[in-house]
Amino acid sequence: MVGVVGLGYVGLPFAVEKAKVGYQVLGIEQNPVRVERINMADNYITDVKDEDLKKVVSSGKLLAVTDFEKVLESDVIVICVPTPLTKNLTPNLSYVENVTHEISKRLRSGQLVTLESTTYPGTTDEVMRPVLEQVSGLKQGEDFFLAHSPERVDPGNQRYTTKNTSKVVGASDQNSLEVAQLFYEQTIDHVVPVSSAKAAELVKVFENTFRAVNIALVNELALLCDRLNLNVWEVLDAANTKPFGIMPFYPGPGVGGHCIPIDPHYLEWKAKEVNFNTHFIALAGEINRSMPLFVREKARRVLNDLGIAPAKSKVLIIGVAYKKDLGDWRESPALMVIDYLLQDKITISYHDPYVSQIEVQDRIYSHVELTEETISGADLVIITTDHSHIDYRNLVAKSKAVLDTRGITRHLDCLHDKVTLL
Asked: Is 225 part of the annotated catalytic residue set?
């Protein structure tokens, strides 16, 4: 049996993938609503096909529970719990620590424990291993096996899924590495072993830091182009025609989700522990966090050009999810943009059929339909998430003015007099 702890954007797709090939899977999830939905085959993760969930649940291959009592029956325990930041941007490993304690009280010989949650280098060996060994009385590599295999989920990606995305696996002893590699090879097309759990942990935080730094670079370019009165999208589109030595990244209202705004700070925090300053990472974080404020400033400019005082204006936000065609609004920069606009006494409404409600400044806002009246009734439309379902040509045509932070309208040449690009 395979136990999967945490049935969110990482855990549920993994659990379903294992159940599809015949494994008996036990999902452990602290949220009772999620447990009930899974056991009713009621899907809540877009990367999981409804029919796949129904099949594995109806066949009895996947069962969700809220407690750890059946962990003893599992041969493999895969941990996919959140690793957020504190308000001071330091790692919060409380979920990992709590799960490790629960598992350690029930750990038996022969079990494999793998951590998939993104974290700083050293978590598996320095945080988990001592607890597992001391509480259980068992020894890693001899009695039980422990490894780190970072998740590489890209929500909404139709090409790369859990199965066909290469899987990195690392462990601090050879026996654990071999067992973990063998386990993942059963359902993952390509498994990449590395020399240690610490190396595997660094692989993941580097991958997301790479993206954060490059996004910050193009965000800073957008700020510079604004000063130079240049179109950043024109510059990037032209630069990206080069067939070598460059990789497309695009600016936006900020960064969101469970990875890019968070993971670089794990690496930054760990670096300080060994007296090393990660200048690029810190600067990238500053730039990316500044983008919602820049959107606010640009919105003010557009409203002033229209002769409308911000405090008397109505703004329609298009998209509050952190990424297009998803319902995930964790760390979404759109929320920060809304917060800033509310500080200017601007009346806000939003359209995002993937997100029915949001909470900003202790107030609940509900999604509105994108009607002609909704569009024309706004003094300014701000595109913060470029969902695919929207007819942007019609949106711009019916609006008074548009601030496009995603560049989705940049090819609508005949309508550019209404559009201000980031």
From this structure: no
Q: Which residues pair with 317 in a beta bridge?
A: 350, 382
What's the confidence (pLDDT) of residue 342? 97
% of the chain beyond a pLDDT of 70: 100
The rounded distance, in Å, linking the Cα atoms of 218 and 161 is 27
Q: Residue 415: its pLDDT value, please?
A: 65
Strands of the 314-318 sheet, one edge to the other: 347-351, 314-318, 380-383, 402-404, 419-421
- Weakest mean pLDDT among 4-8, 79-83, 119-123, 269-273: 269-273
End-to-end Cα spacing for the chain: 51
Domains of the chain: 2-195 (3.40.50.720), 211-421 (3.40.50.720)
Q: Which residues contact 45 (CB under 8 A, 6 or more apart)?
A: 8, 9, 12, 13
* C-alpha distances out from residue 245 to 8, 176, 238, 397, Å: 36, 39, 14, 38
Catalytic residue, from 80, 225, 259, 414: name it.
Answer: 259
8 A C-beta contact, residue 182 and residue 147: no
CA distance 338 to 318: 11
Q: Which range, of 36-40, 149-153, 386-390, averages the lowest pLDDT? A: 149-153
**What phi and psi, each to the nearest 5 degrees, are found at residue 169?**
-135, 135
Closest among 177, 236, 164, 166 to 207, alpha carbons compared: 166
